[in-house]
Amino acid sequence: MLTEKAQAKINLTLDVLHKRPDGYHEVEMVMQTVDLSDHLQFQERADAEIVLTCTAPYIPLDQRNLVYQAAHLMRETYGIEKGIHIHIEKRIPVAAGLAGGSSDAAATLRGLNRLWKLGLSLDELAVLGAKIGSDVPFCIYGGTAIARGRGEQIERLPSVSPTWVVLVKPPIAVSTADVYGRLRADEIEHHPDTAGMVHALTTGDVKQISAGLGNVLENVTFAMYPEVERLKQQLLKFGAQGALMSGSGPTLFALVEREQKAVRICNALRGFSREVYLCRFF
Ligand code: ATP
C-alpha cells in the first residue's frame, strides 16, 4: 500500500485581470500550500475497477470525484488496465476555498505515478492535472507559486519561512462558479499588488506579507454572505495582523508570527466557529 498527502492551499493574493472572450477570467494569484492535508491510500485491486472510499459521508465516490477523474485519466493516458482502490481520509473542509478536491486529484496523479512506476516529472503531471481542473497544476507542485491564465500556468517561487496560519471556516458552502458569475471584472476598484507580495515573501516578514494580502472575490462573497465579513472583523479584533478570504471563500485565514499568539487567536475564535484550524506554510 502507498500513501500520499494532499495539502490545502490558501491565496495570499487573488486578482482578476479581465474576462476573456472564452468566458473564463484571466487571474493572477499568489498561492501557498499549508500543512492541513487529506491523506490518500492506494491499494491495487485484482479486478479492473476504480473504487473510492472516503471518511466524509457527503462526497460523491463516482466519476464526479476529482480523484476518480485523475485515476481514470492516468489509466487512459498510459494504457493501464489494473484496478485501484483509493481511500481518502478527509481533513480539508469541503467547498471552502481551500482546493481540497484539486489537491486530492494532484495527490492521486503523484501517487499513481509512483505506484505504477511511470517515471513522470512534476511538469508532466501538471500538464495532465490541467485537464482535470485549473487549480490542479499548482497542487502538483505545492509550496509557493504565482498562478496565471485560468490558474493553470504556474511560476514557482522560492519557499517561504513556515509562517503560522489560522484558518476559520463559517458553516456555509460557497460555489466558486456562483462567485465568479457575480464578479464584474471591469468594476474592480482595488487590485492586489502581485509583485509587491512576491517581494514581501522574500523578506519572510509576516507584517509585510499581511499588509499585501488581497482578494478581489472578497466583496462578492461578503455581499452574498455578510456573516463571512463579520467573521473577518472578529479575526482582526482578536489580534490578527491581516486577514483574508481564501479563493471564493468562505474560509478566512490570518498569518501570525508567533505560535503562542496563533493558539490564542484560535481559542478566541472557537467561541464563534466550530471549524478552526492551526497550520503552517508548507
Ligand atoms: P476551490 O478552492 O478549488 O474552489 P473548494 O475547496 O472550494 O475548491 P472542494 O473542496 O474542492 O472545493 O469541493 C467542491 C466540490 O467538489 C464539492 O462539493 C464536492 O462534491 C466535489 N468534489 C469532487 N471531488 C472531491 C474531493 N476529492 N474532495 C472534495 N470534494 C470533491
From TrEMBL:
GO terms for molecular function: 4-(cytidine 5'-diphospho)-2-C-methyl-D-erythritol kinase activity; ATP binding. Its EC number is 2.7.1.148. InterPro entries: GHMP_kinase_C_dom, GHMP_kinase_C_sf, GHMP_kinase_N_dom, IspE, Ribosomal_Su5_D2-typ_SF, Ribsml_uS5_D2-typ_fold_subgr. It catalyses: 4-CDP-2-C-methyl-D-erythritol + ATP = 4-CDP-2-C-methyl-D-erythritol 2-phosphate + ADP + H(+). The active site is at 9, 135. Catalyzes the phosphorylation of the position 2 hydroxy group of 4-diphosphocytidyl-2C-methyl-D-erythritol. Residues 65-143 form the GHMP kinase N-terminal domain. Signal peptide: none annotated. ATP binds at residues 93-103. NCBIfam families: ispE, PRK14608.1. Keywords: ATP-binding, Isoprene biosynthesis, Kinase, Nucleotide-binding, Transferase. Pfam families: GHMP_kinases_C (PF08544), GHMP_kinases_N (PF00288). This is 4-diphosphocytidyl-2-C-methyl-D-erythritol kinase.
